[in-house]
Amino acid sequence: MKENIISVKELCKNFGKFKAVDRITFDVKRGEIFGFLGANGAGKTTAIRMLCGLSYPTSGSGTVAGFDVMRNGEKIKHHIGYMSQRFSLYDDLTVYENMKLFGGIYGLSKMQVERRSVEILNQLQFKSEINTLVGSLPLGWKQKLAFCVASLHRPEIVFLDEPTGGVDPVTRRQFWEMIYKASSEGTTIFVTTHYMDEAEYCNRVSIMVDGQIKALDSPAELKKQFNASAIDEVFRSLARGAKRGE
Amino acid sequence: MTGFASFVKKESLHILRDKWTLLIILIFPIVELLLFGFAISIEIKNINFAVSVPHRTEAIRKQVEQISSNPYFTFRGYISGNEVDKELRSGKSDAVVEFSKDNSVLIALDASNPNKAMEGAGYLQSILMSGNSNASETTSNLSSIIPETHMLYNPQMNSAYNFVPGIMGLIFILICAMMTSVSIVREKETGTMDVLLVSPVKPIRIIFAKMVPYFTLSCINLACILFLARYVLKVPMSGNLGGVIGISLLYLSLALALGLLISTVTSKQITALIISGMLLLLPIIMLSGMVFPIENMPAALKPLTYIVPARWYISAIRKLMIEGLPFKYVLKEFSVLLTMTLFLVALALKNFKDKME
User: Measured between alpha carbons, how far is A79 from A66 in angstroms, rounded to an integer?
Assistant: First the structure.
């Protein structure tokens, strides 16, 4: 039995009277690919922000990478990587400059940055583009690079906020191969997505509706529970009950 | 110091890659300075005048000659008494001097441009008066007391002296406040701010790293402006250069704090741009005394000028640079600016912390 790397109990975040996140409880195991699903406005982003140490929970408790989300938000930041759909590196910097920047931010030495960058670019067969401005690369490549940059400092957990939005199916497939590889090397992946076929790739998924987690299990178990043939159906039957609008 | 150097490097790269913006930042102050220094002048230099006389006498000829010899006036010719209105209306002349039979003189001016008319009247009166006194010296001593005027500190009435401090007050706010706020807000807009905030780098370090290159650029601008002012516009710089630089650096910090404050209240680049444009630039041009003298403002408007930082900066720079006063004479301006800076920094940091949570 693997240890829990994220463990959250009764976590809440209120904005005034509005309960953005309403008593969520779940655990994520080390090396797991955890799918965090929910409709827009269900509270996913708020929950992720709390787990990343960006915002303080209103109540509840939780640990991420062994640090308390209430007290040690700053320490958590050293152990996680983050990538979102909106962000795919700085367009006006080259591939290598982006890597140097994020390496520097996480306190890697010049040597380490150089070694890991070369290693990553070799794996992606992308060495020739090392001095290309990121802005001139296709979106799919940017997203793959962004994932590599987010894991450049070898974080224990990588948070991926809709990482494959707007990317073609072939690149999405390649992206998930990268996720599997990272997971097999022991990195925990915490991923949100709107693509239900991607949810099927996860070890376990949770589905959030109106700030609460309404379902949590492996895709196969969920389908059995809800008597559905795909996660898509499970999601829709749960999301139909949502009271919050878009 | 986690990542601070990497950040400064990143910000510098952003600026260097954006060639047009960089060019504008570096060239704009120079163009502005030269434009105001040479091309745009608030003094009236070319007044066309005509003369109407019942019959030409030697005395009148002498007076007309005296006016014409003044570089500000161009003699358009003699006209008859009933042509005065036509002459002014057609715009051929800006002023008509009418000598009448009883030796009285009437000066008629086209006051559609009040400044020009006022100034022209002033010049004409003084020329005619001095002409009278010369003529009457030998005869009766009727001439009244003629005041002697000294234009202190700026004997040539050079408008560049007036504009250099004003331009400085404008440029630094523009570059520091506008550019920093836009560059911070840009990261909010593209979402990169989130990624930076997830990193272990303290938010305040991110912000300071953003300020470093703009501060450096402003220092280059300051050097350029001082150099141009001294050697091209021939502003005397009679005061201590250290004082000018010192108070300018304080003003730069104030501008950076303003930029940070703006960036904490907006989330769109365009809003940041409009706020800096409307809330900073207009008051600086209108209320700082750069163009319109504060003394002439309506009483209700005057207190408003006290909260415009540029007012204090421009006043201090005038005293130090043009009048050549020692630093202790700008202590008031210095302390006002210092208080404003500290207040803005505190407010901006507080706001920034609140927003990041």
Answer: 10
Q: What are phi and psi of A88, to 5 degrees?
A: -135, 80
Does B196 reside within a domain?
yes
Query: Are B64 and B132 within one domain?
Result: yes
Q: Are residues B23 and B53 in the same domain?
A: no
**What CATH number does residue A195 fall under?**
3.40.50.300
Nearest to A94 by CA among A123, A61, A69, A130: A130
The token duo for A208 is: 């959030």
CA distance A79 to chain B (A): 9
- Residue pLDDT, tens place only, B217-248: 889 999 998 898 888 888 877 667 888 999 99
Q: Tell me the residue range of the domain where A91 lies.
A: 4-239
Q: How many domains does chain A contain in total?
A: 1
- What percentage of chain B carries pLDDT values higher than 90? 12
- Is A77 close to B190, i.e. CB distance below 8 A? no
* Contact check, Cβ <8 Å, A84/B196: no
For residues B352 and B203, the answer to whether their CB atoms sit within 8 Å is yes
pLDDT of residue B351: 83
Predicted confidence (pLDDT) at residue B138 exceeds the cutoff of 50 = no
Q: Do B206 and B315 fall within a single domain?
A: yes
Structural domain boundaries, residue B108: 47-138
What digits encode the pLDDT tens for the residues A145-204?
Answer: 999 999 999 999 999 988 888 888 999 999 999 999 999 999 999 999 888 889 999 999
For residue A163, give the nearest of A240, A244, A53, A48 by alpha carbon.
A48
**Chain B positions touching chain A (beta carbons under 8 Å):** 2-3, 5-7, 9-10, 13-14, 17-18, 190-192, 194-201, 357
Interface touch A77/B200, C-beta < 8 Å: yes
Domain shared by B30 and B80, yes or no:
no
What's the mean pLDDT in B267-289?
85
Q: What is the pLDDT of residue B144?
A: 47
The CATH number linked to B114 is 3.40.190.10
Q: Does residue B261 sit within a domain?
A: yes
Residues B179 and B124 occupy one common structural domain: no
Q: Looking at the domain assignment, is residue B151 inside a domain?
A: no
* ipTM of the complex as predicted: 0.83
Q: Which of B3, B9, B197 sits opposite A107 (nearest CB)?
A: B3
For residue B152, is pLDDT > 80? no
Contacts of B156 (CB under 8 A, 6+ apart): none
Which residues in A lie closer than 8 A to residue B20 (C-beta atoms)? none
Residues B51 and B188 in one domain: no
From CA B330, how far away is CA B345, in angstroms rounded?
22
Measured CB to CB, residues of chain A less than 8 Å from chain B are 52-56, 74, 77-78, 80, 82-84, 86-87, 90, 92-93, 97, 100-107, 133, 159
